[in-house]
What does this fold into?
Amino acid sequence: LPLARARGDKAAATSFEKETVALPDDPPWPDPLLDLVFQLSVGQRGWERDVGMMERDGHYAEAAQKYLEHIKKAPTSQTYVGAGINLARLREYDRAIPLLREAVRLDADSVQAQYTLALVLFSRAEREWQQSPGADDAKEWFREAIPHARRATELKPDHARAYLFWGLALKYLGDPVAALAPLRKGVECRPEEFDLQFALGETLLETGHDREAETALKDAQRQNPNDPRPAQDLERLRAKTK
It folds into this structure.
């Protein structure tokens, strides 16, 4: 085709061009690197699907084991979070928390890692507190949870649940006044969440903000009328103002 054009044979050039267009595309050259990338991608998706089904079905031990095995091949923050959260679901906190700390160490800017560590520390502390109110271990876990919850909100300013655990940890540690700011922010982000409205209402009541407390508790009551706690707090508030 280029030679026909070069010698000015337009008819031949046009004929060659039509033949070229009609020809089928050349078969792709084998590319071992692209083939490997594709296989890894398909394999990763299959692995994620399998472990996701385990979690959905409540098979947390199997899911945790899958993640722990995967850490050997892909020691990423996300993989450590997966192992840690599934062990935490089994209440194996002594194994879960070091994994989650490592997830944060690997990627301090991961919202998922920061929030999950805060969540698990808070859950462990609250469980211990229910069994032994004021326990030193529980206080230490609450204290450790706070900066991670706060960091999650810095990375994702509308992370309502991170504000919740930040505020409640402060409340458990005897500082309800400081707890108000994160709890208010959480409600601002997700006003429809019962847990946030109720936590804010109780904290407002505890700190003497009676009018605001009444509003938050009534909102919580509307959101979950089957939970008796907002009504009980509202009754306390009425008795207080008589």
Notes: The CA atoms of residues 77 and 106 lie 6 Å apart. Residues 32-56 form the longest helix (25 residues).
